[in-house]
Structure formats: structure tokens, C-alpha cells
């Protein structure tokens, strides 16, 4: 089967028909499925949509059970956790719904971990890390754009000279480089390529 438009988060199942991986939807499986909007709702109390998935958390005084339900916990109610808690050996501990969140100084609310600045967010060589609340994603470096090439998505160099997005002087020629461009004054002119006299 050939899918000319590509299947971003899925696989080609028939001529131009994509079978999306769980958590994704759309003709090319490029849209995140908001599981929190599904019927029946996947979480008993509160739901947080994430890229390709979702997280459940409970109201104050309840704790999240492995099956996604919320069980009453009187001791948890006293602690007043933002996203629910667990009891370990009589100790009450607040929880965060994502590995990209950590407990703040008050040990009750969750604060974001910036995976990009801590180095936890690993992106391939021509992509840059963009931090989000509770997670991160990889985006093409400046001067590159996401294109579907020979069966998969890749970050491809933008030719600013062809796209005419360069700022070269009228009397200069544009030279495309990987991820950028250079301007060179034409013969008989001198300058830095942006200003030629």
C-alpha cells in the first residue's frame, strides 16, 4: 500500500488510507486525539490530554487507583494535593500526573520540568527542543521545515534564495547554505551583501 500524503503517527493500511497509532487521528494521523473528550470519559474525576495520550487525576481527598478510578482517602484530604496522592507506610505523598512535572517546594502542587534546559529532552540532530507544561516536543531547527520525503517526515533545509525570503541587496546574489543563506555583492559593487555600493 502507498500513502502519498504519508502517515505521521500511523501506518499505511491501503491506498492513501492510514491506520493511526493509539492517541492519534486524522487523514494522515497528524492530529492528537483528545481522549478527555471521548464518551465514556476515560477518567473518573479529572483528565489531562497529552501528546498522543492522556493522564487521569483525582479531586482533593481522593487518590488514583491503577484502574483509573478515584478512591477516597481521608488522610489525603488533609494534605490538599493538586493532582491526588498516595499513602506509603502511613506517609501521605502528593503525586504529579506526568514525568515532566515535579512536586514544588510546598510538596502539594506540581511544577514543570524544563526538559530542554536540563538535557532530558533529546531531539535528533536537525531538530530543536520546545518545552511544554509536563512534557516537550521536537521542532525543526530554524532554516529547516518539516516535509514528507521518501516515506517519512524529515526536517529539510529551506532554500531562502528560491523561496525569496532572503534580505539580500538588489545588487547582490543569494547563496543558499544549510539552514541559512549568504549574500554576496555582484561584480562592480562592494559591501556585506545586504548593503552594496
UniProtKB/TrEMBL annotation:
CDD domains documented for this protein: EGF_CA
PANTHER family in alphabetical order: EPIDERMAL GROWTH FACTOR-LIKE PROTEIN 6, PA14 DOMAIN-CONTAINING PROTEIN
Family: Belongs to the nephronectin family.
Organism of this sequence: Aegotheles bennettii
PROSITE patterns xref list: ASX_HYDROXYL, EGF_2, EGF_3, EGF_CA
Primary site of residence: secreted
GO biological process: cell adhesion; cell differentiation
Subcellular localization(s) per the UniProt record: Secreted, Extracellular space, Extracellular matrix
Record-given protein name: EGFL6 protein
Recorded GO MF terms: calcium ion binding
SMART domains xref list: EGF, EGF_CA
Keywords: Calcium, Cell adhesion, Developmental protein, Differentiation, Disulfide bond, EGF-like domain, Extracellular matrix, Repeat, Secreted, Signal
InterPro entries referenced in this protein's UniProt entry, alphabetically: EGF, EGF-like_Ca-bd_dom, EGF-type_Asp/Asn_hydroxyl_site, EGF_Ca-bd_CS, Nephronectin_domain, NOTCH1_EGF-like
Top-rank taxon: Eukaryota
Domain EGF-like per the UniProt entry, residue ranges: 32-71, 112-150, 157-195
Amino acid at each position: 500500500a502507498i500513502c502519498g500524503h504519508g502517515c505521521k503517527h500511523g501506518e499505511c493500511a491501503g491506498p492513501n488510507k492510514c491506520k493511526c497509532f493509539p492517541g492519534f487521528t486524522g487523514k494522515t494521523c497528524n492530529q492528537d486525539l483528545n481522549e478527555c473528550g471521548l464518551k465514556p470519559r476515560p477518567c473518573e474525576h479529572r483528565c489531562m490530554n497529552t501528546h498522543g495520550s492522556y493522564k487521569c487525576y483525582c479531586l482533593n481527598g481522593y487518590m488514583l487507583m491503577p484502574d483509573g478510578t478515584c478512591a477516597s482517602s481521608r488522610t489525603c484530604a488533609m494534605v490538599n494535593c493538586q493532582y491526588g496522592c498516595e499513602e506509603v507506610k502511613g506517609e501521605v505523598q502528593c503525586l504529579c500526573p506526568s514525568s515532566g512535572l515535579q512536586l514544588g517546594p510546598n510538596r502539594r502542587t506540581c511544577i514543570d520540568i524544563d526538559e530542554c534546559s536540563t538535557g532530558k529532552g533529546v531531539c535528533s540532530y536537525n531538530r530543536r527542543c520546545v518545552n511544554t507544561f509536563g512534557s516537550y516536543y521536537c521542532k525543526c531547527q530554524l532554516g529547516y521545515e518539516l516535509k514528507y520525503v521518501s516515506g517519512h517526515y524529515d526536517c529539510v533545509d529551506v532554500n531562502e534564495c528560491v523561496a525569496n525570503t532572503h534580505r539580500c541587496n538588489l545588487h547582490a546574489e543569494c547563496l543558499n547554505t544549510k539552514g541559512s543563506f549568504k549574500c554576496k555583492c555582484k561584480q562592480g559593487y562592494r559591501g556585506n551583501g545586504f548593503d552594496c555600493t
